[in-house]
């Protein structure tokens, strides 16, 4: 999901330009729409009946492309998570016109003014979405969580489910959720802490209108329900990754730790934001002290995400353990097949492995091709994200040309200085030399152009 909310439609003019610049598709070809409409009427015939289980979904209130539904039960001291994932492969055949279009797109693009889906709405927000009170085909992964929070994949099956409720992060009550929902999240979070995981989930940024054509960027901290819901996907994806690795197959999500140069830049960013980061404290240790309800801490969390080495997909290779450093685990993406192309294939492989069956050849072949496709989709998503943030910053600063700001240099190279403003969550560049990381300088805003989504500064005297 995007990290920027535009509830006032302030970005609408600049968003049109960004959509054109990055070729965001405005619609699906007629042939794809027609094929999806036909597929939407495909009745599930390879699925057992699990409509007796009290599945629920938990998402943003406006979401209609619902990938996951869940219920939790006790098994002695263990917890069993029954995680129903939309069975997209039931509606999309290898090589058909809907599949080919999905391979072109790679992933759903979420922008402040709307999304460009991976699949047509008749599937993504209709027949394949785990909407409430209707029968839906799904793949149920059952993950066992012991008292220490260790996750193990117990089984997987194709099933028909009926979600009993569409719950929203901002309105869900404890009584709406499975009895052990809190305990499940607690165990997963405790296991993460023991592993030394360093997941950083920065708050969303929101454009807020001040009046008189002026705007500000605010942070909306993640709700506790969002954090707990994330534990469901994390546990399932870790368990599925372990099962695939043991079966010597799969497609994995890998991510390195920020390198030393990035960590040094983050230390300067912390200084610019007025945060105290002791020299002997690691980045992982410092992250555990952050409070996302504090705007300075939230800005730093966003900087950490931008500083990470970048995540990639890799297929199984003999003798190599794929590693996701922020998760401190081997990790796979399987929980969002309506929104990520790769997940559809990981789900199919995990379903086969869990039932002692060979992975379909088409899936194994896809694992070799998907890294390049998903890298292209991730790159475009990242470029759009950065340009949207640049647009919002330009909108916020427009009208303040000539104003001077305190800043800290976070990096210096032959192109000039990279700076972090001290009073605003804005990262920018200043041309010229004469500075080194850690220097505190004054800069003057010379232009802020929302249409070009650019801001420029120069050194102030």
How would you describe this structure to a colleague?
This protein is α+β, with helices and mostly antiparallel strands. The protein folds into two domains: 4-256 and 310-397, no CATH class; 263-308 and 398-461, Nucleic acid-binding proteins (OB fold (Dihydrolipoamide Acetyltransferase, E2P), Beta Barrel), CATH 2.40.50.140. It is built from eleven helices and 19 strands. The protein has helices at residues 12-21, 30-39, 97-105, 121-127, 181-195, 224-246, 260-272, 283-287, 295-307, 341-354, 361-397, and strands at residues 4-5, 48-49, 57-59, 68-75, 78-86, 109-111, 114-116, 135-145, 151-162, 166-168, 204-211, 214-220, 251-254, 312-315, 404-413, 416-421, 427-430, 440-449, 454-459. The strands form six sheets. The protein has a five-stranded mixed beta sheet with strand order 2-9-8-5-4. Strands 17-16-15-18-19 form a five-stranded antiparallel beta sheet. α1 runs antiparallel to α11. The model has no long low-confidence stretch (mean pLDDT 90). It holds the Pfam family RNase_II_C_S1. One of its GO terms (cellular component) is cytosol. GO terms for molecular function: RNA binding; RNA nuclease activity.
